[in-house]
Amino acid sequence: AQSVTQLDSHVSVSEGTPVLLRCNYSSSYSPSLFWYVQHPNKGLQLLLKYTSAATLVKGINGFEAEFKKSETSFHLTKPSAHMSDAAEYFCVVSAPNRDDKIIFGKGTRLHILP
Amino acid sequence: SQTIHQWPATLVQPVGSPLSLECTVEGTSNPNLYWYRQAAGRGLQLLFYSVGIGQISSEVPQNLSASRPQDRQFILSSKKLLLSDSGFYLCAWRGQGLGALHFGNGTRLTVT
User: Fold this and answer.
1) If B2 and its partner were Cys, which of A64, B27, B63, B86 is the partner (CB 3.0–4.6 Å)?
2) Measured distance CA(B73)–CA(B96) in Å, rounded
3) Is B89 on the interface with A (CB under 8 A)?
4) How far apart, in whole angstroms, are the C-alpha atoms of residue B12 and residue B27?
């Protein structure tokens, strides 16, 4: 069985400070893991993906995530938050070639304080 | 490059009316196609997915249906809308294997 847990429903950081959005997963397979961002009334945009290559994955807009198998985690980080980063973020786990097994976390709303 | 188009962007329909949402993909062939629904304050719920023309798998047995009449076209339908069908509907595609999902801009459906 697969599942994904985003540990915080809301995170607030000040502009210019680091961002940490936490994600833990469980999977019976070797999973693929993704982070998406969603701005209000928009579709989801892919930030980055892990597919069993390098464990530290760099994405767009300065975001990166580290796959830690021992901790079953895939946390999303950014060194310095920007106002435009305010959005909802989704962690996603996918099993190989299992279209019905793409599991979304419930999302984390990131607030950026001026 | 691949693009995905989804329309309309917003829709207001009365209870009991029919529904048709359309999604098309360009720049790729034989994509896997998906319909998701996002209710207010919740995550994404997979409604249907398709791995080929005429092949539809349903995850949620409700009054919605999906069809794939062409390789890159995916349609979400209902004969009679319910109030609970309100939400944000997202179409997505991905290639075979371990690829990421790529989403359209969504349709905001309000059933009144």
Assistant:
1) B27
2) 17
3) no
4) 31
